[in-house]
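Subgroup meeting minutes
Present: P.N., E.W., G.H.
Scribe: E.W.

1. P.N. recapped why we're keeping a running log of single-chain structure predictions: easier to compare across weeks, and new members can see raw inputs and outputs side by side.
2. G.H. added today's entry (342 aa).
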Amino acid sequence: MTSDHRPVRATYRVQLHSGFTFDDAAALAPYLARLGISHLYCSPFLQAGRGSTHGYDVLAHDRLNEELGGEAGYDRMCAALDAAGIGQIVDIVPNHMAISSRENVWWWDVLKDGPSSEYASYFDIDWDPPESKLRATILMPILGDHYGRVLERGEIRVDASGDDPVVRYFDHVAPLSPASVEKFLGDDVWSGAAGVNGDVDQLHDLLEAQNYRLSFWRTAMRELDYRRFFDINTLVALRQEDPAVFDATHALVLELVRTGRLDGVRVDHIDGLRDPAGYLARLRVAIGDAYLVVEKILEPGEAIPPAWPVEGTTGYDFLNHAAGLFVDASSERALSRAYREF
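Output recorded in log:
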């Protein structure tokens, strides 16, 4: 691979998932070449949640998605595209990460060690909110009912069947802080877990000793102490304004740009970042002259800030105009009447 970036002429977007992998994309290469496509534009392909159909729920930024074929599958796709003279652009997700699985080792460590975790500053968490019960604690709004009722029904349990004891609530799991394991479970964690599970008061005391607080899912609307992606509790915001976070979340993608496998990136949800201009300035330095576009919905008459070092947007404004070609304007009155009545 050369480090020179192919000029972008026309892109063809593919949505990668377990049913359409790197190998499936590779098989399109000859067809795309006949179409005159210069670049395959991929949905996010870093490790996402199991069964993800879109890839925006990234769990790990340091490896390629195993369900798409992993590194070997990606190598095969690159070879096929290269043989067809086609470059690559990828969608990246700097705003947030998924916290639905312990595969997000950064978030798991924060739950286990709280503010003392080395990753505590990676996420946009308010460690000192007005609610005193949430200070230095993360709200986990995962319960289907109020905490006391769930606890009394025995639906929250300590599970010591794995390498490390965890708190389990149906499909949800959370780590136990080392101090609480020593205090409540002792040296024989299996026996200790059985004892705690058999005593509601002791189980409550153990849960109170964690760096998180299990709560009814509805409490997220008023008590959530971390910034999320819109109203999705399982997507936590990242602090890209911190250079350490930027470096940790972009290392693999930047390596692919440096080696010429990627000719450009599309940045998802740029307005979600605290400092979009600062982020883009840092990214531009990191990718050099590679192609760079952002997802930004422009209002009529709005333009991209001139200081942003980008080629443009994903093109929602253009697509809105293009979609108008498929609208029969003579039907507007009937449609508006039906909409108002509904």
